[in-house]
Amino acid sequence: MNTPEPFLGVTSHAPVRHHILSVMVENKAGVLARVAGLFARRGFNIYSLAVAPAETKARFSRITIVVDAESAPLEQIVEQLDKLVNVVAISDIAPKDALERELLLATIKTNVDSRTSLLDVVGNSGAAIVDVDAGSVTLMLAGTPAACDELERELENYTTMELHRTGRVALPRLGKAATATID
Amino acid sequence: MQLTGAQALIKSLEMEGVEVIFGLPGGAILPVYDPLIDSSIRHVLVRHEQGAGHMAEGYALATGRPGVAMVTSGPGATNIVTPIGNAHMDSTPLVVITGQVATVAIGTDAFQECDITGITMGITKHNFLVKSAHEIPRAVAAAFHIATTGRPGPVLVDVPKDITQSMMEWWYPTTIEELDLPGYHPVVDLDDERVNEAISLIEGAERPVLYVGGGTLKSHASAQLLAFAERTGMPVVTTLMARGAFPDSHPQHLGMPGMHGMYSAVTAIQKSDLLISLGARFDDRVTGKIPAFAPHAKIIHVDIDKAEFNKVRRADVSIRSNVAAVLEAWDAATVTPQNLEVWWKEIDAWREAYPLVYDEPVADGPLRPQHVIESIARAAAPGTIVAAGVGQHQMWASQFWKFEEPGTWVNSGGAGTMGFGVPAAIGAKAGRPDRIVWCIDGDGCFQMTAQELVTARAEGIPIKVAILNNAYLGMVRQWQEMFYEERYSEVYLSPDLPDYVKWAEAMGCVGLRATTVQEMHAAIATANSINDVPVVIDFRTDSTEKVFPMVAAGASNDDIMVHPLQRESK
Question: ipTM, 2 decimals?
Answer without folding.
Answer: 0.91
